[in-house]
Amino acid sequence: MSDITLTDGVYVRPEFVHKSLGAAGHGEVERRLTWFERISNVEPLRKFSVLILVIVIWQLYTTIWDVHELMFPTFSDTFVALIDSVVNGGLLENVWNSISVLLKGYAIGICIAAVLVVLGVTTRFGDDLLTTLTAMLNPLPAIALLPMAMIWFGLGEDAIIFTLLHSIIWPVALNTHVGFKSVSETLRAVGQNYNLRGVMFIAKILVPAAFPAILTGLRIGWAFAWRTLIAAELVFGGQVQDTSGQLGAEGSNSGGLGWIIFQNQMENQTPYVFAGLFTVIIVGIVIENFVFRNLEDRTVRRWGMQQA
Amino acid sequence: MTESASQDGTTLIRPEIEAGSLKATEQVDVERKLSIVERISNINSVRKLTVLLVLIVLWEAYTKLAEVEELLFPPFSATLITLWDTIQTGELFEKIWITVAILVQGYVAGMVLGAVLLVFAVMSRVGSDFLSTMTAMFQPLPAISLLPLAILWFDLGAPSLIFVTIHSVLWAVALSTHVGFMSVSMTQRMVGQNYGLRGVSYIAKILVPAAFGSILTGMKIGWAFAWRTIIGAELVFGAQSGKGGLGWMIYEKGDNLETTYVFAALFTVIVIGLLVENFLFRNVEMWTINKWGMQR
């Protein structure tokens, strides 16, 4: 920058004239991507290969280092165990047991949450009751109530459903209530113009307007319930073993995925434990990405309340 | 009004109406002081406290009047006395400390691991794919179901509890933060590039502040899962080993039918949950995203 000269108290820059623009003249303006680049731009393919890679590393690690099957089974062993427990071990039956308990709890929980929220929306006392209860009970892990539930309802499905209820009601009620409160005055006024009152007002104005929040609540409720269910089945496993000294005592439990995991671990059949974990993952993925995604597509996305 | 409107060709003409007088308004109070009951019941906290008191009174009355067995459902007073006892003997604080120490270790380790994964995810496409595949796989897996394996690998004890806590925090935080990073606006990214920020300093100075809202959401979800997991894990442990924190206390006392202790422990769990959610996270929120004007 030493070219800048000071003339009459003013800085004057030298004039520049570019002879040519060199590189830009013969650079590649357009170039076809190589096959490799094009393939690696396909996202599902990339993620799938990551998955394959992880599996290959797992398989290699366990076979080459000769890790004991008891500690960390190979992928192939896990796969064989999975097939075996589906075909012979009644895995699907246990999955169904877990899911049916979950569904019962979920349905009852949503009904109770709905009653609480309706009360909370229509009366000020209900509102206070709901906020106090959710503030108190939402931070309490549902599983902590299991010992009490076992005292009140005995070892069995009822105790699990009671705990599940607790894990579902509060997140659903909390989110729905907050969602209802933030429905805009305009929409409320529309409802009043149509002379909607009470339950009709809630069903036709508040529920559709607050549906994203309700859906969030349902999702969180599902996540907590699923975790609580598995944990409850694990505790049950311990309890049954603790009291009767024998595993899988008939009639003392309803079975289920958590139970299988516990039982197989006790019998040191680690591949079967892994198979159980796989099933838990698959059920979780199916419900989150299939059930809730579909529900979202059909409601909030279709209504234009949320972009893809 | 339609009856009195007369049809004249194609235009409807309404009759002219002149209101006689607006008497009623003169006799109505335009402004009135609320009565004391109304004024008191307009204070939110007073109302909520009353609801709480009513619930407690109902509980106490129910257990006393219906003479419910203390084993099944202890009265509020008995629960309070037990709570006071356990506080005085220091038993309660000991249990709280065991649980919270493990929770904090697991939480911090989970956050550090999540940060490492995220740094890779931001810097390379392979890292990003790896992270999203792993979160998609492990996010739906309840951490507690890994407990039997953790016991197998790390034996009964703190390490297996920390392992499941890490698992419950890691994926929730990583998922939420990753989504937050991806939705940081191009303008802010370019500001970072203008300053010549790269790698870790780019993440620390641009991405983290810009995505702090979702990071905090992830941390809250992670905390909720971790808290539930640790209590659950201690319950499962209860069946197998003989020591532990709050969850173990709930299990052990439940097993011995010392129900008042179970209720006292449940109270403590609620109080800790409320403290962390409404005090810790609320304060972090105030110092960061509220102060920065990202959230009102």
Can you describe what's shown?
Chain A has about 300 residues and is mainly α. Chain A has 2 domains: about 40-70; about 80-300, Orthogonal Bundle (MetI-like fold), CATH 1.10.3720. In chain A, about 70% of the residues lie in helices and about 0% in strands. Chain A has 13 helices and 2 strands, in the order ββααααααααααααα. Chain A has a two-stranded antiparallel sheet with strand order 1-2. In chain A, strand 1 and strand 2 form a beta hairpin. In chain A, about 35% of the residues are buried. Residues about 245-255 of chain A have low confidence and may be disordered. Chain B has about 300 residues and is mainly alpha-helical. Chain B folds into 2 domains: about 35-65; about 85-290, MetI-like (MetI-like fold). Chain B has helices spanning about 25, 35-40, 45-65, 75-90, 90-125, 125-140, 145-155, 160-180, 185-195, 200-210, 210-240, 245-255, 260-290; strands spanning about 5-10, 10-15. Chain B has a two-stranded antiparallel sheet. In chain B, a hairpin with a 2-residue loop joins strand 1 (about 5-10) and strand 2 (about 10-15). In chain B, helix 12 (about 245-255) runs antiparallel to helix 13. The longest helix of chain B is centred in the middle third of the chain and has 33 residues, at about 90-125. The interface between A and B is large, with 62 and 63 residues.
